[in-house]
Amino acid sequence: MEYIYSEEVDPKLYETNGLVNQLKLRTHKDSVMEIRGALRAQEDWSKHVHQINNYHGGLGDPYSFIRVTVPECLPDRLELISYANEYAFLYDGKCLSVFSCLHTSTNFDLDDMEKLDLQDTNGNAHGILETFSHDVLSREIGPSTRPEKRIQAQILSEMIAIDRPRAMVTMKAWAKFVQLAAETRKSDFKTLEAYLPSRIIDAGELIWYGTLTFGMGITIPEHEKCLCMELAKPGYAALGLANDLFSWEKERIAAEKMGQNYVFNAIWVIMQEKAVDESEAKEICSDEIRRYMAEFTQVVESTKNDQGISKELRKYLEAVLLSCIGNIVWSIYCPRYRVSSDC
Ligand SMILES: [Mg+2]
To answer: Any idea what the CATH number is for the domain that residue 270 is in?
Structure first.
């Protein structure tokens, strides 16, 4: 891939906790648009959906989420991608809180605002799922339209105004994700092997597919869609496991507070499967992340010059790899995964 909008970060300037070997972090040259998009999403959510307190989303210092995970985002889409991503962070809590009411053995990313949402989730589950699934491509707004749906319709309108075909692909992928994710957290997984396919879905391979293809203006040819998902799997395994590793404390505490006997997190699964404590489970998880990062790096290297695969797919795979390292570095520095004393 030709790098146009990003620059390499000096490896002396960031930690990877030994999870990234040789790969270099890249960051988008424009630091303003991401911040603008994320703050606008927070304002809209506060105004129309729910007041937010002590909330942390994608923004971080010095590494904010979109800057390092989509470093080659087209400049005219950066603010919108950031807005949509922040909406997903905000929505994640609300949506997954609903799932936790539906299935008591589930867990969710908890931010302080999300605790409040638990009070009004009874009876709303169906509506929220519908907001994001069956009705996802509709931009029709009426007096009874939920505020989340209004924001979502606004995102879709803005996306369509920029790039209609890719906006449609992205929104369909996001809708499919929500349907699949609702199923994944139902099970109590006994082994990491059984857990990972669900975690890959839950980590948002479809959400991210939509984000990267729209953000970078990539079109994966129809006949390569299955190959695309297959080749990217180790990358999404690394993304999901890294998220589990860094959000473990927060999710464990959340599960305890909810009285749940199960945490949808690789650390929990490894502790049960191998009968090890937290720190050993984290070591095993870190080894798995390194293994998947190496495997996926190999996939990207071996397909880089393969003329039998479209240029678009090769660009996508490289973009996923950049996301993997960006995600790890962001996770290390972001306020979102710091467990505060009042959590
Ligand atoms: Mg997590």
So the answer is: 1.10.600.10
Mean pLDDT along residues 86-104: 58
**Domain tally for the chain?**
1
Q: What is the DSSP letter of 119?
A: G
Q: Is residue 26 one of the residues assigned to a domain?
A: yes
- Ligand 1 center–CA 205 separation, angstroms: 14
Predicted local distance difference test score (pLDDT) of residue 107: 33
Instruction: Specify the 3-state DSSP secondary structure of 76.
Output: helix
Give domain status of residue 80, yes or no: yes
What spacing in Å lies between the alpha carbon of 277 and ligand 1's midpoint?
Answer: 19
2-28 pLDDT, tens digit each: 999 999 999 999 999 999 988 899 999
Contacts 24+ apart (CB under 8 A), 29-35: 29/5, 30/5, 30/75, 30/78, 31/64, 31/67, 33/75, 33/78, 33/79, 33/82, 34/58, 34/59, 34/64, 34/65, 34/66, 34/67, 34/78, 34/79, 34/82, 35/59, 35/64, 35/82
Q: Which domain holds residue 148?
A: 6-337
pLDDT digit string (tens) for 269-293?
A: 999 999 999 999 999 999 999 999 9
247-276 residue pLDDT tens: 999 889 988 888 888 888 999 999 999 999
Q: How far is the centre of ligand 1, averaged over its atoms, from the C-alpha of 241 (Å)?
A: 9
- Give me the pLDDT at residue 339, please: 64
1 is a domain residue? no
Tokens of 13: 């300037």
Q: How far is the CA of 3 from the centre of ligand 1 (A)?
A: 30
| 236 alpha carbon – ligand 1 mean position (Å) | 13
Give me ligand 1 centre to Cα 46, in Å: 23
Q: How confident is the model at residue 113, as a pLDDT?
A: 29
Name the pLDDT band for 61 (thresholds 50, 70, 90): confident
Assess if residue 215 is contained within a domain: yes
